[in-house]
Amino acid sequence: MEMDIRLKLARKIRELRQRKELTQEQLSELSGVDYKHIQLLESKKAPAAKIDTIEKIAKAFGITPSKLLKF
After folding, report:
1. Torsions phi, psi for 64 (to 5 deg)
2. Whether domain 5-64 has CATH 3.30.390.30
3. CA-to-CA distance for 45 and 39, rounded, in angstroms?
């Protein structure tokens, strides 16, 4: 069974964050996305992410939203 897109995004955010050696709190500060929401987005019960949130997180990583969504 193919992995749900929300779980793919959760994994990608977590991997990029760890690669940049950022905590969830630091990513929250850089992106302007609430810390609790970052936690949720990285969880196994990740909610659907709004396009604005994807854009903010991608910008914090220094990439385009399309790169963030490339699985």
Report:
1. -85, 155
2. no
3. 10
Q: State how far Cα 33 lies from the chain centre.
A: 10
Q: What predicted TM-score, i.e. pTM, was given to this entire model?
A: 0.91
31 torsion bin: left (phi>0), alpha (psi -120 to 50), beta (else): alpha
Q: What is the pLDDT of residues 7-66, one digit of tens each?
A: 999 999 999 999 999 999 999 999 999 999 999 999 999 999 999 999 999 999 999 999
Q: Which letter does DSSP use for residue 63 in this model?
A: S
How crowded is residue 1: how many other Cβ atoms within 10 Å of its Cβ? 3
DSSP 9-57: HHHHHHHHHHHTT--HHHHHHHHT--HHHHHHHTSTTPPPPPHHHHHHH
Q: Is 49:38 a contact under the CB 8 Å cutoff?
A: no
